């Protein structure tokens, strides 16, 4: 895990603060509107470039855990997100939508790092990545419209177009880039260079997008600076309940240690970059929704780091990456 990944939550917070400072002190922040979406689309392309389709075949090696993961991520978690939002953010519709977007999108990147740190089954964890991605694409508009209530006042076509823009376009671009990399004389080396470059690009693009977004909406964010404390309670409850539910489910299934770790991590980790991209595209005039998606990783990443140590297997598993 690189230093940038370890400090991701801190760097995102600093980028947000820098954007607010620039937006409040100068007129440069007005250009942030034209910076955010291209950066996020490029960032997600870089994330998808790193996906290896060969991992999909490993799903069948752990069917009970895979089914449990799908139920936890796409049935239990959305209901939990709706309940937490309705209970603790009833008077904050934008924060409730932001919380919903964050919690209904299971992670498709750094949960693999934490699964590996905890000596979990990284093969199964990676195989879940494209499954989670496809289901997010299909279900996210439904979640927002069904669970968001009247506060999610957006046309279905607008939301679907936003999801297509920030998921399908980057995914298609990633497929094309990987295909081009395989056409050079040394395909393996070309693919490795491409994925290395993509991995390096993700963090700068994310930080630039966050800085641009907050510079663009600096005044609105400054006027609502207390939202962090309002989000802390629902986020804390989720990041306690999610790993407990996953661990109990793995116990009922009598899943081996590595699969248990993978289930805990994929159930707990959330996909703030994708949720942030969709929030910016679908709700450009409601910056508090994006604020919730920036606050989320500030809580999530330390939780995942601690959780990786709590559930970490004492010795490497024989089939850790099988």
UniProtKB/TrEMBL annotation:
Transmembrane regions: 35-53, 65-89, 95-114, 126-146, 152-177, 197-216, 228-249, 261-283, 289-311
Keywords from the named record: Cell membrane, Membrane, Transmembrane, Transmembrane helix, Transport
Membrane topology: Multi-pass membrane protein
Annotated localization: Cell membrane
InterPro entries for this protein: Arsenical-R_Acr3 (IPR004706), BilAc:Na_symport/Acr3 (IPR002657), Na+/solute_symporter_sf (IPR038770)
Record's GO cellular component terms: plasma membrane
GO molecular-function terms, A-Z: antimonite transmembrane transporter activity; antiporter activity; arsenite transmembrane transporter activity
Domain of life the protein comes from: Bacteria
A Pfam family that the UniProt record links to this protein: SBF
PANTHER family the UniProt entry points to: ARSENICAL-RESISTANCE PROTEIN 3, ARSENITE EFFLUX TRANSPORTER
Protein family per UniProt: Belongs to the arsenical resistance-3 (ACR3) (TC 2.A.59) family.
Name of this chain's protein: Arsenite resistance protein ArsB
Native source organism of the sequence: Dietzia timorensis
């Amino acid at each position: 895990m690189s230093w940038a990944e370890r400090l991701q939550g801190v760097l995102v917070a600093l980028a947000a603060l820098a954007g607010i400072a620039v937006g409040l002190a100068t007129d440069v922040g007005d250009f942030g509107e034209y910076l955010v979406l291209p950066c996020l689309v490029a960032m997600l392309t870089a994330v998808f470039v790193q996906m290896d389709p060969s991992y999909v075949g490993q799903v069948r090696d752990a069917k009970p855990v895979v089914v449990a993961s799908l139920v936890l991520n796409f049935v239990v978690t959305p209901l939990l997100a709706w309940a937490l939002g309705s209970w603790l953010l009833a008077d904050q519709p934008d924060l409730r939508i932001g919380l919903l977007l964050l919690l209904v999108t299971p992670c498709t990147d750094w949960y693999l790092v934490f699964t590996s740190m905890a000596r979990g089954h990284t093969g199964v964890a990676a195989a879940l990545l494209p499954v989670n991605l496809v289901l997010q694409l299909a279900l996210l508009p439904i979640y927002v419209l069904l669970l968001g209530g009247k506060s999610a006042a957006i046309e279905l076509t607008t939301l679907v177009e936003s999801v297509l823009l920030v998921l399908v376009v980057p995914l298609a671009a990633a497929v094309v880039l990987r295909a081009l990399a395989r056409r050079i004389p040394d395909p393996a080396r070309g693919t490795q260079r491409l994925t290395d470059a993509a991995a390096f690009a993700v963090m700068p693009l994310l930080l630039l997008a966050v800085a641009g977004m907050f510079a663009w909406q600096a005044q609105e964010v400054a006027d609502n600076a207390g939202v962090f404390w309002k989000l802390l309670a629902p986020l804390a409850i989720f990041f306690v309940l999610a790993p407990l539910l996953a661990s109990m489910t793995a116990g009922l299934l009598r899943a081996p240690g590595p699969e248990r770790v993978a289930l805990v991590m994929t159930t707990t980790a959330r996909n703030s970059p994708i949720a942030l991209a969709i929030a910016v595209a679908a709700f450009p005039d409601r910056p508090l929704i994006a604020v919730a998606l920036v606050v989320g990783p500030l809580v999530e990443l330390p939780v995942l780091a601690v959780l990786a140590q709590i559930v970490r297997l004492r010795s490497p598993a024989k089939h850790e990456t099988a």
